[in-house]
Amino acid sequence: MASSPMAGKTMRAVQYGGYGGGFAALKHVEVPIPSPKKDEVLLKLEAASINPADWRIQKGIFRPFIPAKFPFIPVSDVAGEVADVGSAVKDFKAGDKVVSVLSMKNGGGLAEYAVASSSLTVHRSPEVSAADGSGLPIAASTALQVLKSGGAKFDGTGKPLNVLITAASGGVGSYAVQLAKLIDLHVTATCGARNIELVKSLGADEVLDYKSSDGAKLKSPSGKKYDAVVHCTAGIDWSTFAPNLSDNGKVIYISPSTSTFLNYAIKKLTFAKKKVVPLFAVPKKEDLEFLVGLVKEGKLKTVVDSKYSLSKAEEAWAKSIDGHATGTWYLQRFKELTD
Q: Where do the structural domains in the chain lie, given as residue ranges?
């Protein structure tokens, strides 16, 4: 088998050597460019986005399963250009522009090159920038899967639903608002006061300042009861959700905790009509193709808070952990690999 054209060459990357340490533990290194296995593609990265899962991995939340080993190059949501393909890859060739989700176990996104499974890589047309594309794999896919879990259908067969989206100015939330409005759902959204106009611009019908009286109670200004809640934050008790739900309403948690699972079990055992749904989104190629298509058609946009070069990865990491950016605070920590 012919060797990779990048074999023996090195690249810049950012990695950490163990659990903990936050942004201070990130180290800039020069490492060999990886070679794709038979069903993988080698990508020259143009952009990547940092998600909460990335720094939670560093904190050790998924130990001992993730990461696979140290030192570890974090981040899984990327966009770039195919530099090389494995022997069994037929759908991609060098020069193709793509969006991909890397293995969370192996990471690789904070680097100039990374290997990705061809089964989780999709073509990206010129209308979809690298920055727009790299925000889709985890955040937009999660928004899509949560809405589907709440009863939304994207094939034209769905019924009208009232949905509440908490933390609607965040990565998942900003995509969820747009996707919900794409199929004419009624959207009530919560966010901080400074982001109300942003969330309105995304299409939300009602926007609540989460610190206001009605916002804290999650009460719809028009008195609607929610068929589904896309819950993108933490610290809200079930007792706050329950009075605002329709008879068969459900609250879908994108970051379920131990108490979430306990509440889920209780609702199951008592045959409660109002439900708690813990959700862990699983990347799917068909979802990614659908989302990239929406961006191409101008029906979905990625709200970018700020961009960083690879040399400023520590700043991006710290800002993502801090979580107080305008717009998609935990999604859009982009790096442009041109510095």
A: 10-135+302-336, 139-278
- The fold for domain 139-278 equals Rossmann fold (3.40.50)
Give the model confidence (pLDDT) of 160-208 as tens digits: 999 999 999 988 999 999 999 999 999 999 999 999 999 999 999 999 9
Cβ(314)–Cβ(15) below 8 Å: no
Mean pLDDT of 52-67: 89
pTM of the model: 0.91
CA dihedral (299, 332, 139, 82) positive or negative: positive
CATH 3.90.180.10 fits 10-135+302-336, yes or no: yes
**Rounded mean pLDDT, 309-331:** 70
238 contact partners, CB below 8 Å, separation of at least 6: 251, 263, 276
In this structure, the number of other CB atoms found within 10 A of the CB of residue 151 comes to 16
The one-letter code for the residue type at 28 is: H
Cα→Cα distances 175→41, 133, 146, 322, 338, Å: 27, 13, 11, 21, 27
> pLDDT tens digits, residue range 200-242?
999 999 999 999 999 999 999 999 999 999 999 988 999 999 9
**C-alpha 278: how far from its chain's center?**
16
Count CA within 13 A, CB hemisphere, residue 23. Answer: 13
Alpha-carbon distances of 274 from 134, 160, 185, 242, rounded to whole Å: 35, 18, 20, 7
Tokens representing 302 are 């990625």
Collapsing DSSP to helix, strand or coil, 238 comes out as helix
Q: How far apart are CA 250 and CA 161, in angstroms?
A: 12
DSSP calls for 284-315: -HHHHHHHHHHHHTTS------EEEEGGGHHH
Block residue for tokens 């593609």: 41
List, for residues 72-100, the tens digit of each pLDDT value: 999 999 999 999 999 999 999 999 999 99
